[in-house]
DNA sequence: TATTTATGTCAACAAAACTGACATATTTCA
DNA sequence: TGAAATATGTCAGTTTTGTTGACATAAATA
């Protein structure tokens, strides 16, 4: 029964650090419950988690192009097309031709879309706030840890697109400006 | 552009707490990168993430029954059957009839299975350790937060099955003992 | 003008979940 | 003991969400 607690020799031989089995499992359980929060609501709208993700990013990065959305979600355009089309057809998202480059489609959440995005964020936000309070931990501490868990290449994006930070849009416009 | 930072009125009206948009996104990005760590390895073995999860829990809760595995994973038996059968057929997991109840199948990882489970845990563990170091945070703090993120009903299971804790097996045997 | 780029779309496919139905062996209960 | 409940396995069909590959269109760019 003791040898099931995984080979300690290999563990120390490879990394001289502990195998974080506890945190690995906790991440699984915590994330599963966290994502299950909006599920019931999504079901009522006939949407799935893929729709949730698209609506979230379009709402919080208004004016995002299709290419930018693909890069954030890391899926193929064919995969995105299905859910995005549904969100557009049902009036949660609108597309407008890019003012500088008319090939691009800038994406915006409608009022209806913003309201749904908020309704989906509320239970997740409540879970996080409750957990922070119960554990007696400051938001910034968890934020630091999670940020460090993200691949370094991706962290730049996070800095540019802090939800609520307005620098993001300006930055995007700058890039497109200099590209001409 | 400012109204996109979501209706502050509703936010305060509902919960008097902040909408944790930053943490919601960070959880998405962090978990995605975290789960992508073992992907390359899994691909080489012709397995997917579903196999990873099954192998993980069978390795760290040896003697688990099919029913217990289903409860932890929260999937249907038809869904489990497919991946479990593959793991058994390829010699990563074995089944033995429960000694007390011969209808049950107790699941055990083979040596081969334990080795793969370890190899899959290593990159995830490394990411966690690096993140803790970079953020200068103690493991216990993150553990407290993640535990509080899990649905309260589930936390009991976590206490019984701390990876590395040996009380789990005894507990299970006790339960089955009294059931007769 | 020719090429590249941004987007859209068609078709086929795969992983991993689901439901519903039914079979078998074993245990439990009246 | 015989009937009912339980643990597991399996067949068949469906859904969601991802994939590849191919090709079309409009707009920008060299």
From TrEMBL, chains A, B:
Keywords: DNA-binding, Transcription, Transcription regulation. InterPro entries: HTH_MarR-typ, MarR/SlyA-like, Tscrpt_reg_MarR-type_CS, WH-like_DNA-bd_sf, WH_DNA-bd_sf. Residues 153-180 are annotated as: Disordered. It comes from the Bacteria. Residues 153-162, 169-180 have a biased composition (Basic and acidic residues). It holds the Pfam family MarR_2. Residues 20-151 form the HTH marR-type domain. The keyword Coiled coil does not apply. PROSITE patterns: HTH_MARR_1, HTH_MARR_2. This is MarR family winged helix-turn-helix transcriptional regulator. It comes from Chelativorans composti.
